[in-house]
Design goal:
By secondary structure, the protein is mainly α. The protein is built from 3 helices and no strands.
């Protein structure tokens, strides 16, 4: 082998090792980004405890339970029930209005 052949073999080896190192570095960076996103997702899912200067954040399941509780309160107001709902109050007001104005509120020519 001549010195040119030796130089070309070494240049090929260095190029191959550089390519493998670059691919490995890119893979590690991608894995690191993915891991950070998974970690953020898990923090959102589980919530975070209170720490100095930062209030606690409830987890996803706690937030869903709170939403369901609020929706049940809203639903209670939308349907007639024991007389405590907004719907019952509106129905009562309509019955009183119908007693006061039996011909209807807009029948006076308006």
């Amino acid at each position: 082998m001549t010195w040119l052949d030796v130089a070309l073999v070494w240049a090929g080896a260095v190029t191959l090792l550089g390519g493998v190192a670059a691919m490995g570095w890119g893979g590690l960076r991608a894995a690191g980004r993915t891991w950070r996103r998974v970690d953020e997702f898990m923090d959102d899912w589980q919530g975070e405890l209170e720490r100095p200067g930062v209030p606690a954040r409830p987890g996803l399941l706690e937030r869903v339970a709170l939403i369901e509780e609020r929706l049940s309160r809203v639903e209670h107001e939308l349907y007639p029930n024991s007389g405590d709902s907004l719907r019952d109050a509106v129905d009562h007001a309509n019955r009183q209005l119908a007693r006061l104005c039996p011909e209807g509120p807009l029948s006076s020519g308006e």
